[in-house]
Amino acid sequence: MDIKKTFSISELAKEFDVTTRSIRFYEDQELLKPSRRGQTRIFSSKDRVRLKLILRGKRMGFSLAETKELFDLWDETLSGNEKQLHKMLTILANKRAQMEQQKNDIAQAEMEIDTAETRCREALAELQNKKKQQALADDEARQTAEHQ
User: Fold this and answer.
1) Please, which residues have CB within 8 angstroms of residue 69's CB and are 6 or more apart in sequence?
2) What's the number of CA atoms in the CB half-sphere (13 Å) around residue 127?
3) Helix (H, G, I), strand (E, B) or coil at 123
4) Confidence (pLDDT) at 92
5) Cα dihedral 19/24/26/28 (nearest 10)
6) Is the pTM of this model over 0.85?
7) What is the DSSP letter of 10?
């Protein structure tokens, strides 16, 4: 674990592979609250953890509003509370339901693609077969004409 107490915006951007613009946006959304030394932002270990949670939440499909709501609930107490945990469980249940729907939609789309691909392959084989038959008929007609 990093024992460093403060971080610059560029250090966090590099560590989490995000742009400094993204970090400033999260600050504008009041998800991060760095202190200032003149124009320089000084991010705390708490800001670093929050950035990590913001990015994890994004990967899980959390909106920034949902993340902010959870942060705000956490900030009401020293260690979170029952209200926050219930909210988190509700959000997770909703995300799980959305993902299940997406998986079903993807499975349906794959079946439709498979059907379309099969039809295309059959139509292509039929066209190629007709071409071969026509070529054979043309060759036979040419040979007959040459022998007459």
Assistant:
1) 87
2) 6
3) helix
4) 86
5) -160
6) no
7) H
What percent of the chain is modeled with pLDDT above 90?
59
Pair 5, 45: CB distance under 8 Å: yes
CB 27 within 8 A of CB 36: no
Taking CA atoms, 84 is separated from 54, 78, 116, in Å, by: 16, 12, 47
Nearest to 31 by CA among 59, 63, 5: 63
- The C-alpha atoms of residue 70 and residue 144 are separated, in whole angstroms, by 86
Amino acid, res. 99: M
Phi, psi dihedral angles at 42 (to 5 degrees): -120, 110
- Quick: pLDDT tens for 15-67: 999 999 999 999 999 999 999 999 899 999 999 999 999 999 999 888 899 88
Q: Is 51 exposed, middle or buried, given 0-12, 13-18 or 19+ CB atoms closer than 10 A?
A: buried
